[in-house]
Write a structure and sequence with these properties.
By secondary structure, the protein is mainly β. Helices cover 4% and strands 21% of the residues. The protein has one domain. A hairpin with an 8-residue loop joins strand 2 and strand 3. The chain starts with 23 loop residues before the first strand and ends in a 52-residue tail after the last strand. The mean pLDDT is 76.
Length: 143
């Protein structure tokens, strides 16, 4: 049976916005909870650190960011014009009552990209399908 759903990551052709022969980029992203340094120490004043910081990180840099709050900087996805970009997002933001009231759903909404706005826009408003995601372990947690 022919595929009538959205394109799988890396897929090109009829069901993809990615034309055959286009350049490819793939980013494996994680949404993590880690301390983030908001401002450095000044004189005897210690640095200001948000110990409940939330940030998107690329897979290759996750361990480094978790180990050093100074490495937690905003994520930028770069690609060339006509490149096809696959973003695979996972979340490590646990459900709890302190930081998110058991609502750890996350999504991502890029700008200056062409994409299928019914399946990969990242919005959860109007008649768009819910494209947010929760941490994988939340479905197996005992309440």
């Amino acid at each position: 049976m022919e595929n009538t759903g959205g394109a799988k990551p890396g897929e090109q052709g009829r069901w993809s916005l990615c034309p055959a022969g286009a350049g490819r980029k793939q980013y494996n992203l994680h949404f993590i909870n880690t301390p983030i340094e908001l401002s450095g120490a000044v004189g005897k004043t210690p640095p200001v650190i948000d110990k409940y910081g939330l940030i998107y990180v690329i897979d290759e840099e996750m361990a480094e960011v978790k180990a050093d709050p100074k490495k937690a900087i905003p994520l930028v996805i770069r690609a060339n014009v006509y490149d096809c970009v696959d973003v695979l997002l996972s979340s490590e933001w646990d459900d709890d009552d302190f930081t998110n009231f058991q609502m750890s759903k996350v999504n991502i909404h890029p700008h200056f990209f062409q994409f299928d706005n019914q399946a990969s826009d990242g919005v959860i408003t109007g008649f768009s399908y819910d494209q947010s995601m929760r941490v994988l372990t939340s479905s197996s947690r005992k309440r």
